[in-house]
C-alpha cells in the first residue's frame, strides 16, 4: 500500500506542542484549587502561599525590607523615607534615637500596602509589606551634627505552593481583532486557581534551561523580566530564588522564551 503524499511520517515522542500552564502528560497529577485574594495570576506562573491564611495563594514578591543605620540619630536630624518610590513626610529628631526610630516606623506602618514596620530601638527598622505586595525602602538623613548612612536589605517570605494550571474552559484574552486570540486569561482576585502541586507542567522559561539546570523562581521584577512567578536557571542577580531539587526539577529544557517542563513534587 502506498501512503498518500504529504502524510505525517514522523512523530515527536516528547509531546512538546503545548501552551504555558498545560499539563505535560496524564501521569499522576495533584491539582488543588485555592483562591487568590490579591493578584491576577496567569497560567504557568509559580504561586506562593498566603502567609497566615488557609488555602490561598498569591504571586511571589520581595516583601521584607530591613533598614539599618550606621550610627545613632542625633538632635537636628531629618530623615526622609522613600517607600515604594514615594517620598514620605520628613521625620525630625524626637527626644532620643529610640523615639525617633519609633516615629519613623509608625509613619511607614501607616502607609497603604504595609503590614508592619518595627524598630528595634537601636539601629534597625524592619518593614513587611501586606501579603501579595512588594516593598522597597530607602532612608536619607540630613542636618544635625552627624548623619547615619542607612543600608537596606531586601528579603522575602515566599513559600512555593505550585504552578497555576491552564484550563480549557476558561475564556482567552481578546486579541487585536476583538476575538479570543490573545492568550489565556488570568485568574483574577477571588477566582478558584487550579494549582499543580504534584506532576509535570509546561512553563515559559526566562533563559535557557536543561534537565540538569537548577530551578529558580522570580520574586523581583526587572525591566527585562517584569513578570514575577516565572522560572529560570539562575538567580538573575538575586531577583529569583532557588527552589529545592527535591520539590521541583526540570525534565525537559528549552531556550529563552520557549516551553520547558517542570516536574513538581510538593510534600
Structural write-up:
The chain is built from one helix and 18 strands. The longest helix has 13 residues. The protein has a domain of 92 residues. The protein is 5% helix and 31% strand. The protein is elongated and about 80 Å long.
What is the compact description of this entry?
The protein is mainly β and 267 residues long. The chain has a domain at 64-155.
> What percent of residues adopt helix (DSSP H or I)?
under 10%
What is the chains' assembly state?
Answer: single chain
What percent of residues are in strands? Answer: 25-35%
What's the number of helices?
1
Secondary-structure element pattern, one letter each: EEEEEEEHEEEEEEEEEEE
Q: Distance N terminus to C terminus?
A: 53 Å
**Number of E strands:** 18
Question: Can you give the mean pLDDT?
Answer: 90
Give a topology summary.
Elements: E1 30-32, E2 46-49, E3 57-58, E4 64-69, E5 78-83, E6 86-87, E7 91-92, H1 97-109, E8 114-119, E9 124-129, E10 137-142, E11 150-155, E12 160-164, E13 195-204, E14 216-218, E15 231-232, E16 240-242, E17 248-252, E18 259-265
Antiparallel strand pairs: 1-13, 2-3, 2-12, 4-9, 4-11, 5-6, 5-7, 5-10, 8-9, 12-13, 13-18, 14-15, 14-16, 17-18
Q: What are the key terms here?
A:
267 residues, mainly beta, 18 strands
Amino acid at each position: 500500500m502506498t501512503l498518500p503524499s504529504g502524510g505525517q511520517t514522523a512523530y515527536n515522542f516528547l509531546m512538546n506542542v503545548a501552551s504555558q500552564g498545560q499539563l505535560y502528560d496524564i501521569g499522576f497529577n495533584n491539582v488543588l484549587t485555592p483562591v487568590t485574594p490579591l493578584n491576577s495570576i496567569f497560567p504557568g506562573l509559580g504561586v506562593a502561599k498566603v502567609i497566615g491564611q488557609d488555602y490561598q495563594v498569591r504571586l511571589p514578591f520581595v516583601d521584607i525590607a530591613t533598614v539599618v543605620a550606621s550610627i545613632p540619630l542625633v538632635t537636628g536630624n531629618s530623615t526622609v523615607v522613600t517607600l515604594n518610590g514615594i517620598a514620605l513626610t520628613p521625620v525630625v529628631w524626637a527626644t532620643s534615637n529610640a523615639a525617633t526610630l519609633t516615629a519613623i516606623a509608625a509613619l511607614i506602618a501607616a502607609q497603604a500596602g504595609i503590614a508592619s514596620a518595627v524598630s528595634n530601638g537601636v539601629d534597625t527598622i524592619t518593614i513587611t509589606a501586606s501579603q501579595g505586595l512588594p516593598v522597597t525602602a530607602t532612608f536619607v538623613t540630613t542636618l544635625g551634627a552627624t548623619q547615619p548612612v542607612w543600608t537596606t536589605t531586601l528579603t522575602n517570605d515566599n513559600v512555593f505552593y505550585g504552578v497555576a494550571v491552564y484550563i480549557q474552559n476558561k475564556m482567552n484574552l481578546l486579541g487585536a481583532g476583538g476575538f479570543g486570540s490573545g492568550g489565556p486569561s488570568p485568574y483574577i482576585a477571588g477566582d478558584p486557581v487550579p494549582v499543580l502541586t504534584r506532576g509535570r507542567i509546561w512553563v515559559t522559561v526566562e533563559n535557557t534551561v536543561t534537565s540538569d539546570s537548577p530551578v529558580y523562581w522570580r520574586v523581583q521584577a526587572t525591566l527585562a523580566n517584569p513578570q514575577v512567578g516565572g522560572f529560570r536557571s539562575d538567580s538573575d542577580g538575586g531577583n529569583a530564588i532557588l527552589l529545592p531539587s527535591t520539590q521541583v526539577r526540570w525534565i525537559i529544557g528549552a531556550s529563552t522564551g520557549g516551553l520547558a517542563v517542570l516536574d513538581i513534587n510538593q510534600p
